[in-house]
């Protein structure tokens, strides 16, 4: 596993000299490589490549001895880099085992933290840190994650008070226990992360976004840093640009004395990033400096995961941020203004569907009037929706367009989130699972509505004003949104007209021959009508869809008539790029 070698199955990612392939090492490990090259503080890590994942499934979900020997060799490298030892004291090494596909799929696959903790290393960690409570918390956390993700427990283990209670619950439910041998738990954990790439939630996410179902995942094994160590420790997520509005401002949350899973899960509500600025100003300044560098080098808004251990900042991941449709437009046009990208790239970064979502109706303030909300929280993904509030992902899938209301969401709820018109949670903040996935889906989402919100809403028709963070009883009408008066949309429309391989107009001259797709569908019953060979101009709602635009381009059509030009132009640009 020498530095620079890219054809092996396990890589020492921060020592790779040339840029590794994202398809081989996954986005998470690639970001570690990039951050280390920029001189940022990154805990050492190894990565098991996506090639190994494919081989794992080809061999009937078997982790071969040859591969595992390489993994163990990689762990020895981590021991050398850290001066710690997996499974023994006085300075025990603990690692995280994290998934990382080539295409970002936030929260869809599994991560196991604190691997390497057992009764012996708990005692060593307690002696080393001088904090037996911290060491006990680390072991409890690991056992709860292992029980859920490896042993297969469906019980709620995270809230159990101590390790003994967690182990008892796992054995009672599954008949299994958590092995003391960290090498055995490592082997099982790697297999579990590979398996999570074919979970129902991962398959649903890939299907929704048209991601190939066989991309698998890499697995990153990284030396742990501990945000739950003491009062000078914590964990957080920072977006370099606001993922709701697109404004050029840091946006994020910080959880003192927490680990990353606490923030992502939504089980607790973190503090705003301003808390870090007010209470740890030097640390905040260091974080913002790193974020600016990653934004500049990444040429896009970044979603950054970080941990603070005893006052020292460590960066764990940086990736292109999931964003709302409004933010996608603002970020793309701002980056053009900053000279970072050109208009063609801006038009490629905003999808036709995002514009369709952006032009959806919003709540009509005149109809709201003096009506008081029945629930209120934090706007995690703006928008407006009306529907029946349901309490499970299964009910949301059975009733598309309903409002999914949960205490907090997890990756197991993704199929319901895809079907829902909006998502509401009692707990969690703007970087929780519910918030991040809803922004990716462009689904209205309100988080942190407080205990009891679910019980008060489920079974009722409600109106969700996710832009304002409010939920109202009954149906309140909406108001149409227009491109007019929005300088960012106007700029994007102008660039798209120049770049699209087709002309889009809102009317044609009298006497012009126009093929009407809607009339053809009504006459033939064919949902994908055949466009006549000689047709140069087409109209109809079918040609407002991506499929209709592709058909028009493939048929040699030169002009599409529509009252909604921007999504049609962007769909044409995307199809033209794919066809090249």
Written overview of the protein:
The protein has 580 residues and is of the alpha/beta class. The chain has 4 domains: 1-224, ATP-grasp fold, A domain (Dna Ligase, domain 1, 2-Layer Sandwich), CATH 3.30.1490; 225-321, ATP-grasp fold, B domain (D-amino Acid Aminotransferase, Chain A, domain 1, 2-Layer Sandwich), CATH 3.30.470.20; 362-479, Phosphohistidine domain (Glucose Oxidase, domain 1); 499-579, no CATH class. Helix content is 42%, strand content 18%. It contains 23 helices and 26 strands. The chain has an 8-stranded mixed beta sheet with strand order 14-21-20-16-17-18-19-15. β24, α21 and β25 (537-539) form a beta-alpha-beta unit. α13 (343-349) crosses α20 (487-499) and α14 (352-358) runs antiparallel to α23 (565-579). One of its GO terms (molecular function) is ATP binding. Residues 23-282 form the Pyruvate phosphate dikinase AMP/ATP-binding domain. Residues 400-469 form the PEP-utilising enzyme mobile domain. Pfam families: PEP-utilizers, PPDK_N. This is Putative pyruvate, phosphate dikinase.
Write the topology of this structure:
Elements: E1 10-11, H1 22-37, E2 45-48, H2 50-58, H3 65-82, E3 85-86, E4 92-93, E5 95-100, E6 111-115, H4 119-129, H5 132-149, H6 163-174, H7 182-196, H8 200-209, E7 218-223, E8 234-239, E9 251-256, H9 260-265, E10 271-272, H10 273-279, H11 281-298, E11 302-309, E12 312-320, H12 325-337, H13 343-349, H14 352-358, E13 362-363, H15 365-368, E14 375-376, E15 378-381, E16 384-390, H16 393-398, E17 403-406, H17 414-419, E18 422-425, H18 433-441, E19 445-447, H19 453-457, E20 461-465, E21 470-473, E22 478-479, H20 487-499, E23 503-505, E24 515-516, H21 517-524, E25 537-539, H22 546-554, E26 559-561, H23 565-579
Parallel strand pairs: 3-4, 16-17, 17-18, 18-19, 23-26, 24-25, 25-26
Antiparallel strand pairs: 1-2, 2-7, 5-6, 5-7, 8-9, 8-11, 9-10, 11-12, 13-22, 14-21, 15-19, 16-20, 20-21
Helix pairs in contact: 4-5, 5-6, 10-11, 12-13, 12-14, 12-20, 13-20, 14-23, 20-23, 22-23
């Amino acid at each position: 596993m020498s530095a620079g070698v890219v054809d092996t199955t396990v890589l020492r990612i921060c020592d790779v000299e040339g840029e590794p392939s994202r398809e081989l090492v996954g986005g998470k490990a690639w970001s570690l490589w990039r951050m280390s090259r920029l001189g940022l503080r990154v805990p050492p890590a190894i990565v098991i490549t996506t090639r190994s994942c494919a081989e794992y499934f080809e061999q009937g979900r078997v982790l071969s001895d040859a591969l595992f020997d390489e993994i163990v060799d990689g762990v020895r490298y981590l021991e050398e880099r850290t001066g710690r030892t997996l499974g023994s004291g006085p300075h025990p090494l603990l690692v995280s085992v994290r998934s990382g596909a080539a295409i970002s799929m936030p929260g869809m696959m599994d991560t196991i933290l604190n691997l390497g903790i057992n009764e012996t290393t708990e005692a060593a960690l307690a002696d080393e840190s001088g904090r037996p409570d911290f060491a006990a918390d680390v072991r409890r956390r690991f056992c709860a994650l292992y029980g859920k993700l490896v042993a297969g427990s469906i019980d709620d283990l995270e809230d159990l008070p101590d390790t003994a209670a967690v182990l008892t619950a796992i054995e009672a439910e599954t008949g299994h226990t958590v092995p003391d041998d960290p090498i055995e738990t490592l082997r099982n954990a790697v297999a579990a992360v590979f398996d999570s790439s074919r979970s129902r939630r991962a398959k649903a996410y890939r299907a929704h976004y048209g991601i190939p179902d066989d991309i698998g995942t890499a697995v990153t094994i990284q030396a742990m840093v501990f945000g739950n160590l003491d009062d000078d420790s914590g964990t957080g997520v920072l977006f370099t640009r606001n993922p709701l509005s697109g404004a050029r401002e840091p946006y994020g949350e910080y959880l003192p004395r927490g680990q990353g899973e606490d923030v992502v899960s939504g089980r607790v509500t973190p503090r705003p990033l301003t808390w870090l600025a007010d209470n740890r100003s030097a640390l905040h300044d260091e974080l913002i400096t790193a974020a600016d560098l990653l934004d500049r080098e990444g040429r896009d808004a970044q979603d950054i995961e970080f941990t603070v251990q005893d006052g020292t900042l460590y960066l764990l991941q940086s990736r292109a941020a999931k964003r709302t449709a409004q933010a996608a437009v603002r970020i793309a046009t701002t980056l053009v203004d900053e000279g970072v990208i050109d208009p063609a790239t801006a038009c490629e970064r905003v999808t036709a569907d995002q514009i369709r979502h952006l032009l959806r109706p919003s709540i009509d303030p005149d109809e709201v009037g003096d009506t008081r909300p029945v629930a209120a929280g934090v706007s995690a993904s703006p928008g407006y929706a009306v529907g029946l509030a349901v309490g499970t992902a299964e009910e949301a899938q059975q009733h598309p367009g309903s409002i999914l209301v949960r205490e907090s969401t997890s990756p197991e709820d993704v199929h319901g989130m895809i079907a829902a018109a909006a998502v509401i949670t009692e707990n969690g903040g703007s970087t929780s699972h519910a918030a991040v996935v809803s922004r990716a889906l462009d689904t209205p989402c309100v988080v942190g509505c407080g205990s009891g919100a679910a019980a008060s809403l489920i079974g009722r028709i409600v109106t969700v004003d996710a832009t304002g963070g409010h939920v109202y009883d009954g149906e309140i009408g909406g108001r149409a949104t227009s491109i007019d008066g929005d300088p960012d949309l106007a700029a994007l429309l102008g660039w798209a007209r120049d770049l699209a391989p087709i002309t889009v107009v809102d009317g044609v001259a009298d006497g012009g021959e126009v093929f009407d797709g809607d009339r053809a569908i009504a006459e033939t019953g064919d949902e994908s009508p055949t466009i006549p060979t000689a047709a140069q101009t087409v109209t109809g709602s079918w040609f407002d869809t991506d499929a209709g635009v592709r058909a028009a381009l493939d048929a040699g059509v030169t002009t599409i008539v529509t009252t909604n030009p921007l999504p049609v132009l962007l769909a044409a640009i995307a199809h033209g790029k794919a066809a090249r």
